[in-house]
Amino acid sequence: MDPGDRDRLLSGAHHDPHGLLGAHPVRGGVLFRVLRPYARAVTVLAKGLRADLHDEGDGLFGGVIPLSAIPEYELLVSYEDNTVTVHDPYRFLPALGELDLYLFGEGRHEELWQAMGAWPMVHQEVTGTRFTVWAPNARGVRVVGNFNYWDGTGFPMRSLGSSGVWELFLPELGEGELYKFEITRPDGTRTLRADPMARRTECPPANASVVQASHHRWQDAAWMERRADRPAHAAPFSVYEVHLGSWRPGLTYRQLAQQLPAYVKDLGFTHVELMPVAEHPFGGSWGYQVTGFYAPTARMGTPDDFKYLVDALHRAGIGVLMDWVPAHFPRDDWALAEFDGRPLYEHEDPARAAHPDWGTLEFDYGRAEVRNFLVANAVYWCEEFHIDGLRVDAVASMLYLDYSRESGEWTPNEHGGRENLDAVAFLQEMNATVYRRCPGVVTVAEESTAWDGVTRATHHAGPGGFGGLGFGLKWNMGWMHDSLGYVSKEPVHRKYHHNEMTFSMVYAYSENYVLPISHDEVVHGKRSLVSKMPGDWWQQRATQRAYLGFMWAHPGKQLLFMGQEFAQGAEWAEGHGPDWWLLDPSYSAEPDHRGVRDLVRDLNRHYADTPALWEQDTLPEGFSWIDGGASEDNVFAFLRYGTDGTPLLAVSNFSPVVRHAYPLGVPEDVAAWREVLNTDEARYGGSGVGNPEPLVSDASVPWHGRPASVTPVLPPLATVWLRPV
Hints:
By secondary structure, the chain is an alpha+beta fold. The protein is elongated.
């Protein structure tokens, strides 16, 4: 062997080990060469052949055998304490096709997870595992794992041309094996990296990748067939947000499958939203600093265990959204950061790469392979795990080059603007691809700015010249901030902030909105939802109940974080999760908390049964103010309409006084109204003030510019819903 080739091969810096190892025709026969560190002897076995190879030192064994053609052969490898018969990995052709490489290079491989990473398979009639990894700057790559005692000397991978992809098929290696890639950087140093495309990982803090094969048999065919029947923005959509690791601390995915679906179904939510489940090393990040984008966290079980949980939720009639984090990734030196010795997944400009808020790195959305990695990842969760929706985290930080950056810390785009054109194109491609491939899936943007067209179709250009981003829904962060600001004020001061509750209707139809009371609003000193409310304990609970009634009636979908459904007083902490003990019947205040949870159940039940509350969420004709200006009374009254014109009348009284015979203008075509929900009912913990009898419309007394009126009693700190008799 050429001394230079020998040195590069042994140091893990050779691009073509298959050209040196294995069997090759030469003058006089077939040259066999094997690299087996620590072996005492190597023998070639074939039909009618048994030939010992010469020991060439450093674990290399070779010899020319007088054969006319390369036979089907195996290797008999003798070590100090045992002898094994194995297939030679270097006799196999590449197990990755040219089309896969072409699509990846173009950034268009929509099923990338089937081409990259560790994939158990049968190749050339031999069972084994194909390893592939993208590392275009590497001088060499080797596979290491528990199967070779984490010494990759004898397992160098080959470079598949200009694709930057390295490949090696290891026969007789199967699922469950631990592995990493040992990469020789451009400067000759080495780094040990987890597989970016690993579909399973070790449980943190361990961080090796695991060869994975799925054996789950889905039982949710009925759900999958009907989930595309109605678009999300025109359907009931009430979301319970969950941090799986702390909802019931210590439970596995399969144990959660026995409890979570039943709990969510009982409360009437249509969907759960799971905080990030992709693998992450630091639990305190809640999953928002991802290192394993293709692997569900191993903290609660295997990928098939997670599928079992999704399956159970679907069979209970509950959709599954998950938080997806393509905005950034952490700097762990065994993960994506400078993966092959140079910026690869992150932008090559350090100023563009460094995320200013979280100490993490931003993806290079302009690089075809990186964009492909992320777009395929979105498809992967939807197709492989039957996820029904992706809530995309931190979209605002992706869209703007100057996000959290001062003047001089960012460079304008090619048009002189602040928009990150690469990120815009990526989000448009991701949304278009997901909606094309995955019928019934919805994408949701956590986007806090006034970016035009977040939920507009990608092919429809807006005033700024950009096509829409293509999301199905957008979190209404403005509504959340304004409405929480209002209810956190003492009632006597609320009249000065009345417009904070009505302003959302100025822009309510500019996007398809979700109204979020999420985990972000009940941590880091912000207090839990009930603890934000002023007054004594009764007033706090009453105000939360009134607020939830207002929220469920307001145009937009609803999202409520776990623990808030029963008025937990403490902030959420991922270490112990919700305070379930508040619902223990032996606790004296248990009825107070159970009452709020009973209200949430009834809100969801009435919501699902009332098309006026969801059919026209995104259309102006689905809403009409009765009185949005009663600031002195702290009252808000409005109508919601179904597509058939059937109305629902919602009235919220955010003052602590009963308002008797409160006049409200109503349509003339409804003769009488009945109270269908009252957040002040005694069983919810309220004072029991209400309207037990139907309210007859009085056409002789027009009010609020309408031809008739009713005069309900408005309970203190309460919301009431009225429907036609």
